[in-house]
Structure formats: C-alpha cells, structure tokens
C-alpha cells in the first residue's frame, strides 16, 4: 500500500522509513505490526511518543500524495492534561512530519521552538463523540 502511494524507502531522497518495532504489538496494540514514520524518528522517539498519546496511538502516515508531497497522519490526542504538559519526542514527531514536506511547502513553525509562527501545519480533532 505504501509503495502504491509512491513512498520511497532506502533512497537518498526518502523522507520516510518503515517502523518494525511493533511486531509484538507492544508499542501500540491497535496499530499494525509495520507502518511508516518520518525518517528522522528513532525507535526510542517512537516509544516515547506512544507513552504521551492516548492508547499509545502516536502519529503514523495514513495517506501520501506523491505529486504534491501532502500527507495525512493519524494519532490519538496527547496526554497533556490540565497543565498542558508536552513531550519532547512528540514535538520532534510533529517537526519531523513538517520536514517530510517538499522544501517549498515547509511550515515556518518549529515544534522545538513553540514561539515561532505556524503557517501550514493543520491539526484536526476528528473524534466521533
């Protein structure tokens, strides 16, 4: 399915990698064994992201348009709580998603520096209830 969408692995221009650390469903029991994540996310980063998201559902690639570089990622809501806590690995994931965009489409928002301006990353809350 990922190849059909035009995702390239193991090439100099690849922005994605196949995550294989969920073969025992120990990172996220509701995700498949294999899925695509940004290339700069380490297995440890993924593990930390899963701890910060409800039911361990961190951002994974659901759709990719090769012609524009646009993508749709899915995840559950963060466990920020009433104090609005954040997580370094989760912020790195958001920045890594931005970094997968073609150079001319990148957002000016830097999740490692939340004071910077956001211009093109859109996050939608799409819960059924």
- Give the strand tally: 4
Low-confidence stretches: none
C-alpha geometry: globular
Order of helices and strands: EEHEEH
Strand order of the largest sheet: 1-2
The profile of the biggest β sheet is:
2 strands, antiparallel
The number of distinct helices, counting runs of at least 4 residues, comes to 2
Terminal CA distance reads 29 Å
Nearest-angstrom radius of gyration?
A: 14 Å
Q: Strand portion, in percent?
A: 5-15%
Percent in helix? 10-25%
Any descriptors?
129 residues; alpha+beta; two-stranded antiparallel ribbon; two-stranded antiparallel sheet; 2 helices; 17% helix
Q: Could you outline the blueprint of secondary structure elements for this entry?
A:
Blueprint: E1 16-19, E2 35-38, H1 43-52, E3 60-64, E4 71-74, H2 88-99
Antiparallel strand pairs: 1-2, 3-4
Helix pairs in contact: 1-2
What would you say this structure looks like, in words?
- The protein has 129 residues and is an alpha+beta fold.
- Helix content is 17%, strand content 13%.
- The strands form two sheets. The chain has a two-stranded antiparallel ribbon with strand order 1-2.
- A hairpin with a 6-residue loop joins strand 3 and strand 4.
- Helix 1 crosses helix 2.
- The protein starts with 15 loop residues before the first strand and ends in a 30-residue tail after the last helix.
- The model has no long low-confidence stretch (mean pLDDT 82).
């Amino acid at each position: 399915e990922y190849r059909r969408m035009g995702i390239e692995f193991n090439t100099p221009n690849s922005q994605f990698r196949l995550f294989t650390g969920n073969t025992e469903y120990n990172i996220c029991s509701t995700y498949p064994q294999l899925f695509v994540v940004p290339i700069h996310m380490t297995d440890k980063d993924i593990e930390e992201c899963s701890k910060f998201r409800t039911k361990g559902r961190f951002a994974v690639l659901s759709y990719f348009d090769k012609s524009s570089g646009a993508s749709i990622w899915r995840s559950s809501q963060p466990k920020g709580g009433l104090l609005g806590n954040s997580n370094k690995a989760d912020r790195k994931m958001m920045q890594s998603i931005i970094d997968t965009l073609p150079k001319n489409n990148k957002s000016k928002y830097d999740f490692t520096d939340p004071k910077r301006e956001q211009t093109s990353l859109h996050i939608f809350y799409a819960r059924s209830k």
